[in-house]
Design brief:
The chain has about 240 residues and is an alpha/beta fold. The protein has 9 helices and 13 strands. The chain has one domain: Alpha-Beta Complex (Spore Coat Polysaccharide Biosynthesis Protein SpsA, Chain A), CATH 3.90.550.10. Strands 1, 4, 5, 6, 8, 9, 10, 11 and 12 form a 9-stranded mixed β-sheet that branches. It has a two-stranded antiparallel sheet with strand order 2-3. The protein has a two-stranded antiparallel ribbon with strand order 7-13. The longest helix has 12 residues.
C-alpha cells in the first residue's frame, strides 16, 4: 500500500493581503521555509508515491516556484480557480485515485511539528479499520472552526458542528487521511450539493464510514499576519 498526497493551495489569502503580506499565501515563510515548500518536504519524507497540488490561476509566482523544484516522485500541478477547498479536492481526485494507494490531503496553511505528521500518516498506512483518519487539535484559535464530535470512550467521529457545544474538545485541523472507499464518494457528494470540505467530512460520517480522529498537539492555521509569529515561536520550541 502506498500513499498519495494532495495539497490544496488555491485560496486567495485575502486576510493576509489586507494585513500587508505581499507574498502569495503558499510562499509565506515560517521558520525559513515557505508553507508550500515545507509541506512538500514533509510529504517526501513520509512515503510519498506522488504529490498533487492545486493553485489558482493568479498564482504565477507559486507556479514558477513549483516548476523550479526537483522531486524524486511525480509532482502534478493543477492550475484552476475554484470557489472553495471542496471543489479543489474534486479537481485533484483524478491524480489520487488508485486501488493500491491511500491518500493524505492537506490545505496549505496548517503548521504542526514534523514528527506529529510522521506518526499520523504511518499509523494510517498500517490501519485496516478506519476509512478516514482526520487530524484534529484542541488548540482553538480559528475564526470559524469546525468542531468535531467524538463518541464517548474513544475517538470515533460521529459528527461535526459549526458551533461549540458542552464537552467539545477538538476542531478539524485541515489534514485528512482517507482510503479509496472514502475518496470514491467524492463525485456523489458533489452531485448531491456538498459545497465545502466540512460538508464532505460530515458526508463520510453520514455514509456510515468509519471515521476516526487523530489528535495533534497543536495545529496553527496561517490566516493572519500575527499567525506567522505564533507559528515560528511554536516550531522553535
Amino acid at each position: 500500500m502506498s500513499l498519495k498526497y494532495g495539497l490544496i493551495a488555491a485560496g486567495q489569502g485575502s486576510r493576509l493581503v489586507a494585513e500587508g503580506i505581499t507574498d502569495p499565501k503558499p510562499l509565506v515563510k515560517v521558520g525559513g521555509e515557505t508553507l508550500i515548500g515545507r509541506l512538500i518536504r514533509l510529504f517526501c519524507e513520509n512515503d510519498a508515491e506522488s504529490v498533487s497540488i492545486i493553485i489558482n490561476e493568479e498564482m504565477t509566482q507559486v507556479y514558477d516556484f513549483l516548476k523550479s523544484i526537483k522531486l524524486s516522485v511525480p509532482l502534478n500541478i493543477v492550475v484552476k480557480t475554484t470557489p472553495d477547498s471542496f471543489q479543489s479536492f474534486c479537481e485533484l481526485q483524478p491524480f489520487l485515485q488508485d486501488d493500491k494507494s491511500k491518500i493524505c490531503l492537506t490545505t496549505v496553511d496548517p503548521i504542526f511539528h514534523d514528527q506529529e505528521l510522521a506518526a499520523y500518516v504511518h499509523h494510517f498506512m498500517s490501519d485496516d479499520v478506519d476509512d478516514a483518519l482526520m487530524g484534529v487539535t484542541d488548540y482553538i484559535d480559528d475564526e470559524k472552526p469546525l468542531y468535531v464530535k467524538t463518541r464517548n470512550g474513544d475517538l470515533r467521529i460521529i459528527g461535526y458542528a459549526n458551533e461549540s457545544y458542552p464537552g467539545c474538545r477538538y476542531i478539524s485541523g485541515g489534514i485528512y487521511c482517507m482510503n479509496q472507499q472514502a475518496l470514491s464518494l467524492l463525485p456523489t457528494a458533489r452531485q448531491e450539493g456538498v459545497k465545502r470540505m466540512r460538508g464532505f467530512q460530515q458526508y463520510l460520517v453520514d455514509a456510515g464510514l468509519h471515521v476516526q480522529a487523530w489528535p495533534f498537539t497543536k495545529i496553527i492555521d496561517i490566516d493572519h499576519a500575527a499567525d506567522i509569529d505564533k507559528a515560528q515561536q511554536f516550531l522553535s520550541k
